[in-house]
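Following up on my earlier thread - several people asked me to post the actual chain instead of describing it. Fair enough. Here it is, all 194 residues.
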Amino acid sequence: MNFLAHIYLSGNNEDVILGNFIADSIKGKKYLAYPPEVQKGILLHRAIDSYTDSHPLVKKSSAKLHKNYSHYSGVIVDIYYDHFLASRWEEYSEIPLENFVATFYKLLKRKFDLLPAPIQRFLPYMISENWLLSYASIEGIARILYQMNIRTKNIVQMDRAVNDLQEHYDDFSEEFQEFFPQLQEYSCKKISSL
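Reply from S.P.:
Thanks for posting it. Predicted structure:
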Protein backbone atom coordinates (compact mmCIF):
# COMPACT_ATOMS: atom_id res chain seq x y z
CA MET A 1 0.00 0.00 0.00
CA ASN A 2 1.07 3.59 -0.47
CA PHE A 3 1.08 6.52 2.00
CA LEU A 4 -2.64 7.11 2.45
CA ALA A 5 -3.55 3.49 3.18
CA HIS A 6 -0.65 3.06 5.60
CA ILE A 7 -1.68 6.16 7.53
CA TYR A 8 -5.35 5.15 7.56
CA LEU A 9 -4.60 1.60 8.73
CA SER A 10 -2.57 2.87 11.70
CA GLY A 11 -5.56 3.67 13.88
CA ASN A 12 -5.61 6.75 16.13
CA ASN A 13 -2.25 6.55 17.91
CA GLU A 14 -0.11 9.39 16.55
CA ASP A 15 3.19 7.59 17.16
CA VAL A 16 1.95 4.44 15.40
CA ILE A 17 0.83 6.64 12.50
CA LEU A 18 4.22 8.33 12.39
CA GLY A 19 6.10 5.02 12.50
CA ASN A 20 3.96 3.54 9.76
CA PHE A 21 4.60 6.61 7.59
CA ILE A 22 8.41 6.68 8.04
CA ALA A 23 8.94 2.91 7.91
CA ASP A 24 10.30 2.69 4.35
CA SER A 25 13.19 4.95 5.42
CA ILE A 26 14.08 2.81 8.44
CA LYS A 27 16.14 -0.23 7.50
CA GLY A 28 16.72 -3.41 9.49
CA LYS A 29 16.94 -3.00 13.25
CA LYS A 30 17.36 0.78 13.13
CA TYR A 31 13.71 0.98 14.17
CA LEU A 32 14.85 0.12 17.71
CA ALA A 33 16.23 3.67 18.06
CA TYR A 34 12.66 5.05 18.04
CA PRO A 35 10.11 5.27 20.89
CA PRO A 36 8.09 2.05 21.43
CA GLU A 37 4.87 3.22 19.76
CA VAL A 38 6.80 4.50 16.71
CA GLN A 39 8.51 1.09 16.57
CA LYS A 40 5.05 -0.49 16.57
CA GLY A 41 4.09 1.65 13.56
CA ILE A 42 7.24 0.64 11.69
CA LEU A 43 6.57 -3.04 12.35
CA LEU A 44 2.93 -2.59 11.35
CA HIS A 45 4.04 -1.06 8.05
CA ARG A 46 6.33 -4.02 7.34
CA ALA A 47 3.54 -6.47 8.17
CA ILE A 48 1.07 -4.64 5.93
CA ASP A 49 3.57 -4.68 3.07
CA SER A 50 4.22 -8.42 3.48
CA TYR A 51 0.52 -9.21 3.65
CA THR A 52 -0.26 -7.01 0.64
CA ASP A 53 2.59 -8.26 -1.55
CA SER A 54 1.61 -11.90 -1.03
CA HIS A 55 -2.16 -11.45 -1.43
CA PRO A 56 -3.73 -13.11 -4.54
CA LEU A 57 -5.90 -10.09 -5.36
CA VAL A 58 -2.93 -7.74 -5.31
CA LYS A 59 -0.97 -10.19 -7.44
CA LYS A 60 -3.87 -10.24 -9.87
CA SER A 61 -3.77 -6.43 -10.13
CA SER A 62 0.00 -6.44 -10.47
CA ALA A 63 -0.07 -9.09 -13.22
CA LYS A 64 -1.93 -6.68 -15.50
CA LEU A 65 1.03 -4.31 -15.31
CA HIS A 66 4.02 -6.63 -15.14
CA LYS A 67 4.68 -6.81 -18.87
CA ASN A 68 5.15 -3.04 -19.15
CA TYR A 69 6.54 -2.16 -15.73
CA SER A 70 8.32 -5.28 -14.47
CA HIS A 71 9.01 -5.20 -10.71
CA TYR A 72 7.62 -1.64 -10.49
CA SER A 73 4.13 -3.05 -11.10
CA GLY A 74 3.67 -3.58 -7.34
CA VAL A 75 4.55 0.04 -6.61
CA ILE A 76 2.05 1.18 -9.24
CA VAL A 77 -0.70 -1.01 -7.77
CA ASP A 78 0.00 0.55 -4.35
CA ILE A 79 -0.60 3.98 -5.89
CA TYR A 80 -3.75 2.79 -7.67
CA TYR A 81 -5.10 1.36 -4.44
CA ASP A 82 -4.49 4.66 -2.64
CA HIS A 83 -6.52 6.27 -5.42
CA PHE A 84 -9.45 3.95 -4.78
CA LEU A 85 -9.22 4.53 -1.03
CA ALA A 86 -9.15 8.32 -1.53
CA SER A 87 -11.89 8.39 -4.17
CA ARG A 88 -14.21 6.22 -2.03
CA TRP A 89 -13.07 7.68 1.28
CA GLU A 90 -16.56 8.26 2.70
CA GLU A 91 -17.08 4.47 2.64
CA TYR A 92 -14.15 3.98 5.00
CA SER A 93 -14.12 7.02 7.28
CA GLU A 94 -16.55 9.45 8.87
CA ILE A 95 -13.81 12.09 8.88
CA PRO A 96 -13.70 13.98 5.57
CA LEU A 97 -10.51 13.27 3.62
CA GLU A 98 -9.50 16.95 3.67
CA ASN A 99 -9.65 16.98 7.49
CA PHE A 100 -7.85 13.64 7.81
CA VAL A 101 -5.03 14.84 5.57
CA ALA A 102 -4.74 18.25 7.28
CA THR A 103 -4.50 16.56 10.69
CA PHE A 104 -1.80 14.25 9.40
CA TYR A 105 0.27 17.12 7.97
CA LYS A 106 0.03 18.92 11.33
CA LEU A 107 1.30 15.76 13.04
CA LEU A 108 4.32 15.64 10.73
CA LYS A 109 5.14 19.28 11.39
CA ARG A 110 4.87 18.73 15.17
CA LYS A 111 7.08 15.63 15.06
CA PHE A 112 9.42 16.89 12.34
CA ASP A 113 12.56 16.11 14.37
CA LEU A 114 11.64 12.41 14.48
CA LEU A 115 11.41 12.18 10.68
CA PRO A 116 14.34 10.63 8.80
CA ALA A 117 16.30 13.11 6.65
CA PRO A 118 14.87 11.92 3.29
CA ILE A 119 11.33 12.48 4.55
CA GLN A 120 12.25 15.87 6.00
CA ARG A 121 13.47 16.82 2.52
CA PHE A 122 10.36 15.75 0.58
CA LEU A 123 7.81 16.78 3.20
CA PRO A 124 7.50 20.41 2.03
CA TYR A 125 6.68 19.18 -1.49
CA MET A 126 4.27 16.58 -0.18
CA ILE A 127 2.36 19.24 1.75
CA SER A 128 2.51 22.04 -0.83
CA GLU A 129 1.34 19.70 -3.62
CA ASN A 130 -1.06 17.95 -1.21
CA TRP A 131 -0.14 14.47 -2.41
CA LEU A 132 -2.56 12.64 -0.15
CA LEU A 133 -5.61 14.58 -1.23
CA SER A 134 -4.53 14.45 -4.88
CA TYR A 135 -4.80 10.65 -4.87
CA ALA A 136 -8.57 11.02 -5.20
CA SER A 137 -8.39 12.19 -8.83
CA ILE A 138 -6.97 10.64 -12.00
CA GLU A 139 -5.07 13.89 -12.56
CA GLY A 140 -3.51 13.57 -9.12
CA ILE A 141 -2.47 9.98 -9.80
CA ALA A 142 -0.98 11.09 -13.12
CA ARG A 143 1.17 13.67 -11.25
CA ILE A 144 2.29 11.09 -8.68
CA LEU A 145 3.23 8.60 -11.41
CA TYR A 146 5.09 11.33 -13.30
CA GLN A 147 7.08 12.16 -10.15
CA MET A 148 7.79 8.46 -9.56
CA ASN A 149 8.98 8.16 -13.14
CA ILE A 150 11.48 10.98 -12.57
CA ARG A 151 12.69 9.37 -9.32
CA THR A 152 13.24 6.06 -11.13
CA LYS A 153 15.06 7.80 -14.00
CA ASN A 154 12.43 6.84 -16.60
CA ILE A 155 13.48 3.17 -16.45
CA VAL A 156 10.00 1.82 -17.20
CA GLN A 157 8.10 5.00 -18.11
CA MET A 158 5.94 4.70 -15.02
CA ASP A 159 4.08 7.89 -15.97
CA ARG A 160 2.26 5.87 -18.65
CA ALA A 161 0.65 3.72 -15.98
CA VAL A 162 -2.17 6.27 -15.68
CA ASN A 163 -3.36 4.95 -19.06
CA ASP A 164 -3.44 1.40 -17.67
CA LEU A 165 -5.45 2.63 -14.70
CA GLN A 166 -8.00 4.21 -17.00
CA GLU A 167 -8.12 1.21 -19.32
CA HIS A 168 -8.68 -1.34 -16.53
CA TYR A 169 -10.32 0.99 -14.01
CA ASP A 170 -13.27 -1.24 -13.14
CA ASP A 171 -11.08 -4.33 -12.72
CA PHE A 172 -8.61 -2.57 -10.43
CA SER A 173 -11.49 -1.02 -8.48
CA GLU A 174 -13.17 -4.38 -7.92
CA GLU A 175 -9.90 -5.99 -6.81
CA PHE A 176 -9.27 -3.15 -4.37
CA GLN A 177 -12.80 -3.31 -2.95
CA GLU A 178 -12.48 -7.04 -2.34
CA PHE A 179 -8.97 -6.78 -0.92
CA PHE A 180 -9.13 -3.72 1.32
CA PRO A 181 -11.61 -5.02 3.95
CA GLN A 182 -9.35 -8.05 4.36
CA LEU A 183 -6.36 -5.76 4.84
CA GLN A 184 -8.30 -3.68 7.38
CA GLU A 185 -9.10 -6.80 9.41
CA TYR A 186 -5.49 -8.00 9.20
CA SER A 187 -4.15 -4.59 10.27
CA CYS A 188 -6.49 -4.35 13.29
CA LYS A 189 -5.36 -7.77 14.51
CA LYS A 190 -1.70 -6.92 13.86
CA ILE A 191 -1.89 -3.67 15.86
CA SER A 192 -3.34 -5.61 18.80
CA SER A 193 -0.61 -8.21 18.66
CA LEU A 194 2.36 -5.82 18.43
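Residues 155 and 182 are 33 Å apart (CA to CA). That should answer part of your original question.
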